[in-house]
Design brief:
Elements (H helix, E strand, L loop, with lengths): L1 H19 L9 E7 L2 E23 L4 E5 L14 E2 L4 E6 L1 H7 L1 H24 L4 H26 L2 E3 L4 E5 L8 E2 L4 E18 L11 E5 L8 E8 L9 E9 L10 E18 L4 E3 L2 E8 L2 E6 L1 E5 L3 E6 L6 E5 L10 E3 L2
């Protein structure tokens, strides 16, 4: 009887221990996050940085000493200001000097041109009738050409009384002068930059000289515009390698239509060297290096399945899977660190 009691107590203890240890009754379900695989594009690119410069830049200076008067922006009706967009031919300021204008003698020179033109026509008519010699006709022609040149020169002289934008662009410098103030010849009146199109000079590592080609697309970003990507293209490449830096020079043209980039900005550039529009693409961070090669985990009926994969194009964060995964498989994106093949899992999201 005593032996029977002891045996019964031992059986109860064993059963109690098993009930307290879940590992003895069921496998632990490891929580994981998954993503259903879809085809999407992937790009391989070379990273570089540089400074963005405007396509055109010009500093306008006064060409005569005169009274300064800033003109109005026809688009706003207000005096020109920093940051105003300006078209070629727009007048920024006028320089008034009555004595200078009088010295040009524009009206007198125009009248003289009219007289010389009339005289030339008269001489041509007489020459056809034999009334004047060839020398007299040529003299009339020379006088007419001289008078025409004088008028052209007078117009050029008068143009100095107006400061005109020679290019489309944006006013980036506009020194302040009180209206009517006498300014000297050679002082800066305005500075204009055309940065709707920009360029960037870059130094590229020697190993990419056979990979980077003119015409390749470049994606550019700056920390001040984190939500926007600006598109550019490789326009020129040097065939020579710098012996000291082991780099070669490249030039990037930037399409800055929205004026998001500003002259002098430091820019990060991704030169797209290869692209696929439709591929199985996964995060690089989830790939495990095993003796069999690169592996990832997928989920099938609540169980983790380890897959060996073959990869292709890659960039800083993503990589193409050429073999080993198929569309619509559920890929483990977090919680994979503690998984092994055939582990039971619990999908949390």
């Amino acid at each position: 009887m005593k032996k029977t009691f002891i045996l019964f107590a031992l059986i109860v203890a064993i059963v109690s221990c098993r009930n307290q240890d879940p590992n003895l009754t069921a496998d632990v379900e490891i929580p994981v996050s998954v993503e259903e695989l879809k085809f999407k594009p992937i790009e391989e690119f070379v990273n570089t940085t540089g400074t963005a410069f405007p396509k055109g830049e010009i500093e306008l200076k006064s060409k005569i000493p005169a009274a300064y008067f800033l003109e109005k922006n026809p688009q706003t009706g207000k005096l020109w200001q920093l940051g105003d967009k300006i078209k070629s031919g727009a007048v920024i300021a006028r320089l008034e000097d009555e004595e200078y204008v009088n010295s040009v003698k524009m009206e007198t020179n125009k009248l003289n041109l009219e007289l010389m033109e009339t005289e030339l026509k008269k001489q041509e008519s007489l020459y056809e009738k034999g009334g004047v010699t060839l020398k007299e006709l040529k003299t009339a022609g020379i006088n007419y050409e001289n008078a025409k040149t004088t008028v052209v020169n007078s117009k050029l002289q008068l143009q100095k009384t107006r400061v005109v934008a020679p290019i489309d662009g944006v006013i980036v410098d506009l020194p302040y002068y009180t209206q009517g103030t006498e300014v000297a010849s050679g002082v800066t009146v305005a500075k204009i930059m055309d940065y709707k199109t920009m360029y960037m000079d870059v130094q590229l590592p020697e190993k990419y000289i056979a990979v980077i080609k003119p015409g390749q697309q470049v994606k550019l970003t700056n920390y001040t515009i984190p939500e926007d990507t600006i598109i550019g293209h490789i326009t020129q490449l040097s065939p020579a390698i710098d012996a000291d830096t082991r780099t070669f020079k490249g030039k990037i043209s930037i399409e800055n239509n929205e004026y998001l980039l500003r002259p002098g900005m430091f820019v990060k550039a991704d030169i797209v060297t290869a692209r696929k529009d439709s591929a199985i693409v996964i995060p690089k961070s989830i790939i495990l290096s095993r003796q069999r090669g690169k592996t990832v985990f997928t989920i099938d009926r609540g169980v983790a399945v380890e897959k060996v994969i073959e990869t292709g194009l890659e960039n800083l964060t993503e990589i193409e899977v050429r073999r080993g995964l198929v569309k619509n498989e559920r890929l483990v994106t977090s919680g994979f660190e503690t998984l092994s093949n055939k582990s039971k899992v619990k999908i949390v999201k």
